[in-house]
């Protein structure tokens, strides 16, 4: 692996590379400060969008790629930045279509991306970036809706506590996924590692659809449950 490739990957990876993918001569430290807890798993694949691994041989060494880290950073920006558009769109739709409907739809899309993104690994970089961007938008689109449901359905006396517990649970789950994905990559490879995240949105969708059938759901979004 070339120096530029290793920098491109380590710039967006939150856990150490395995021996099969890391270079012992790497000169840059891995990045460990995600800007969004929901996007943390996505940063594991952002560098793959811009990293090319041509065939290597003793007579044909791999060319260096001085722009790879910058391109990986741009890809990460697109994936994480798409979350802003997802949040705004989900908020607008929730007020018109219904909060539980929009939240469930976002989690269905997010869960589908969990399953599909691994199969885009090693294929067209444009395809991988497109799937990751859709995932980036959908994976955070439900977060604000959860918080809104807490404020609409919770006891006003304990609103701050309820929102704090919700936020802490979200960060806790993200911390687990950050440490889980590198282990799964070592066991099953990139193609199947992200499938392990799919049960989360699946269970969330079932919970929101059940909430939609409850009488209390009439208090959500002024009756637009």
Key features of this structure:
8 helices; mainly alpha; disordered N terminus; 225 residues
How would you describe the overall organization of this protein?
The protein is 60% helix and 0% strand. It is mostly helical. Helix 3 (99-120) runs antiparallel to helix 4 (125-141). The longest helix is centred in the C-terminal third of the chain and has 30 residues, at 159-188. It starts with a helix and ends in a 12-residue tail after the last helix. The relative contact order is 0.15. Residues 1-36 and 49-64 have low confidence and may be disordered.
User: Given the C-alpha coordinates, what overall shape results?
Assistant: elongated
Count of helix runs = 8
Helix content bin: 55-70%
Oligomeric category: single chain
Structural class estimated from helices and strands = mainly alpha
- Unreliable spans are 1-36, 49-64
Run of helices and strands: HHHHHHHH
Write down the overall mean pLDDT. Answer: 77
What is the strand content?
Answer: under 5%
**Gap between N and C termini, in Å?**
52 Å
How many extended strands? 0
Rg: 20 Å
Q: Summarize the biggest pleated sheet.
A: none
């Amino acid at each position: 692996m070339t120096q530029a490739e290793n920098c491109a990957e380590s710039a967006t990876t939150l856990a150490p590379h395995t021996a099969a993918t890391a270079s012992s001569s790497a000169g840059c430290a891995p990045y460990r400060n995600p800007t969004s807890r929901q996007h943390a798993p996505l940063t594991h694949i952002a560098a793959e969008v811009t990293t090319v691994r041509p065939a290597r041989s003793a007579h044909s060494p791999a060319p260096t790629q001085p722009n790879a880290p910058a391109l990986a950073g741009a890809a990460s920006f697109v994936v994480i930045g798409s979350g802003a558009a997802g949040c705004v769109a989900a908020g607008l739709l929730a007020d018109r279509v219904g909060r539980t409907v929009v939240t469930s739809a976002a989690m269905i899309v997010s869960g589908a991306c969990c399953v599909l993104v691994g199969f885009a690994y090693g294929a067209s970089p444009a395809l991988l970036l497109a799937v990751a961007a859709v995932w980036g938008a959908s994976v955070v689109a439900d977060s604000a809706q959860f918080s809104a449901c807490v404020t609409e359905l919770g006891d006003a006396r304990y609103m701050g506590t309820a929102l704090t517990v919700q936020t802490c649970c979200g960060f806790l789950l993200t911390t687990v996924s950050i440490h889980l994905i590198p282990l799964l990559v070592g066991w099953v490879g990139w193609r199947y590692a992200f499938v392990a995240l799919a049960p989360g949105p699946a269970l969330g969708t079932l919970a929101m659809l059940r909430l939609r059938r409850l009488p209390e759901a009439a208090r959500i979004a002024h009756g637009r449950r």
